[in-house]
Amino acid sequence: MKTSIPSPPPEWAQFQLGPVTIHTYALCILAGIVAAVLITGHRLDRRGVRRGVVLNVALWAVPLGIIGARFYHVFTHVGDYFFPGANLWNVLAIWDGGNALYGSLLGGALGILIACRRTGLRFWAFADALAPALLIAQSLGRFGNYFNHELFGLPTTLPWGLQIEATNAKFPPGLPAGTLFHPLFLYEIIWNLVGVALILFLERRFQLQWGKVLALYLIWYGLGRSWLEAIRIDPTSDGFLGIPANVWASFVAVVIGVVLFIVQSRRHPGVEPSPFTGRDSPAAAGLSSAVVTAGAEAQAQR
């Protein structure tokens, strides 16, 4: 116990700001969103896209991503929300935890697709700029699970075992108080940050574009998440054939990533001539030709 990871005091999960209750989980998600917007904006700026465009995309992607994340969680944990006497308003209580990453990817992708069509920005260009930023955002968001005393795995005697109080509703029945668990939130943070370094290296080394950076993200995250979900014992998603839904979703992410990488490598072996679609000029996206030229030169120098 002396070398284990203590869970934060339960009162740290929220605090009052006047009449408003601020949930730490929500702040972690917000920090992740801000980080993703800033990083994606910087990466697009290097290709000649003014940073304001990423905000236009975020206005679509963030709300749809949050909606998708919540509904994916609810409908893969049906028994937690729909039972005799259940308070159906809990379906909307995202501040209590339950923000499924795969649902946010689906909802966010729809928002990005809509926004990119409206601004004339190529979907693959934006997705590639976003991919490593997503891993940073997810790492920040996982701290919310830590403050909520959730996302832990099998019991362990390792020095970095996570302390979970026996009174926690998520504590597995039958285990003695003081049992330590694998800190899955920490494992995922480390996995994601290693993924950022690896993806950025491969992107620069092989000049990956046309959705191939996104493909690497899907493969890397899907592999890590499938393993983490396999050893997770706090309430997991409903499943099929005894396999949790999140594990199936991870397998699908890996397959999509592999197929996307192969298909885009064959269709587009080179680099994108422009981050903009052929039917829309940079001017249609509110960009000056000088900025576009500078971005193209910076890209050519990489």
From TrEMBL:
Residues that, per the record, bind a 1,2-diacyl-sn-glycero-3-phospho-(1'-sn-glycerol): R142
Primary location class: membrane
Topology in the lipid bilayer: Multi-pass membrane protein
Domain of life: Bacteria
Pathway in which the depicted protein is active: Protein modification; lipoprotein biosynthesis (diacylglyceryl transfer)
InterPro entries for this protein: Lgt
GO molecular function terms attached to this record: phosphatidylglycerol-prolipoprotein diacylglyceryl transferase activity
Membrane-crossing residue ranges in chain numbering: 20-41, 53-72, 92-116, 123-141, 180-202, 214-233, 245-263
EC assignment: 2.5.1.145
One Pfam short name: LGT
Record keywords: Cell membrane, Membrane, Transferase, Transmembrane, Transmembrane helix
Compartments (UniProt record): Cell membrane
Function: Catalyzes the transfer of the diacylglyceryl group from phosphatidylglycerol to the sulfhydryl group of the N-terminal cysteine of a prolipoprotein, the first step in the formation of mature lipoproteins.
Family: Belongs to the Lgt family.
Family annotation (NCBIfam families): lgt (TIGR00544)
Stated name of the protein: Phosphatidylglycerol--prolipoprotein diacylglyceryl transferase
